[in-house]
Write a structure and sequence with these properties.
The chain is α+β, with helices and mostly antiparallel strands. 21% of the residues lie in helices and 34% in strands. A 7-stranded antiparallel beta sheet has the order 4-3-2-5-10-7-8, with no helix packed on it. Helix 1 runs antiparallel to helix 2. The longest helix is centred in the N-terminal third of the chain and has 24 residues, at 2-25.
Length: 223
């Protein structure tokens, strides 16, 4: 009877531990870098919509620093037929969507924290961007992509090596260069899939279950 009780408890603890590891340790969670998102991750198409993630700096005349906003065809900063339409997976953003001369060589910044995540189980996917005028993308000070003026009519794919990530706070930036102080904005999309590091409590529970199994085995041998 005692052996059966110990066995049931052990099996229960191991099932909980393994279930926790399956749900938490190996589940990939996406970080979405798309410009134009609201706080729920929806892509906004309307001009002047607040971007929930990207913060501006160094703009000539920002609308409400450090916020950035969606630029649409009804905004003063929209470049007519030169830019491709907003949606469905990102939108153009700028520090001041209402002022065609208010942006200049701005910088947009997206920060994300990978503390508690396993950097050996990460993957960037579908990274693309565009900017008017020229500029570059950096992650933690490493330049990942650059464009010269005139390439704002379509997306441009790029990649980021996982080695440029850090375990704590990461900083992704888009910086404009060579501005003519007229009709500037940027656009970027792509995701990072990450897996949490298994929690210490999960390992402790699994080890406790293994210890109970060893204890039962010894009792059976001595019986």
């Amino acid at each position: 009877m005692e052996t059966r009780i110990f066995g049931r408890v052990t099996h229960l603890m191991m099932a909980i531990a393994l279930g926790s590891m399956g749900a938490n340790a190996f589940a990939s969670l996406p970080i979405n870098f798309a410009t134009g998102q609201d706080s729920s991750g929806n892509i906004q198409l309307s001009g002047n919509s607040l971007d929930a993630n990207w913060k501006e700096s160094n703009a000539v005349d920002p609308k409400n620093a450090p916020n950035s906003y969606v630029v649409a065809s009804d905004n003063g900063d929209w470049a007519g037929g030169g830019w491709f339409a907003n949606g469905p997976t990102s939108s153009w953003i700028a520090p001041n969507p209402d002022n065609a001369n208010g942006n200049g060589n701005f910088t947009l910044t997206y920060t994300f924290n990978l503390e508690g995540y396993d950097l050996d189980k990460v993957a960037f996917q579908n990274l693309m961007w565009s900017i008017d005028d020229g500029g570059y993308v950096q992650l933690n000070g490493h330049t990942e992509a650059s464009l010269v003026p005139g390439n704002w009519g379509s997306f441009h794919a790029f990649s980021i090596p996982v080695s440029d990530l850090v375990q704590t706070v990461n900083t992704l930036t888009i910086t404009g260069t060579g501005s003519d102080n007229f009709l500037e904005a940027a656009r970027l999309e792509g995701t990072l899939s990450v897996s949490p590091v298994p929690e210490a409590e999960t390992y402790a529970m699994l080890l406790a279950g293994l210890g109970l199994m060893s204890f039962i085995a010894r009792r059976r041998k001595s019986a």
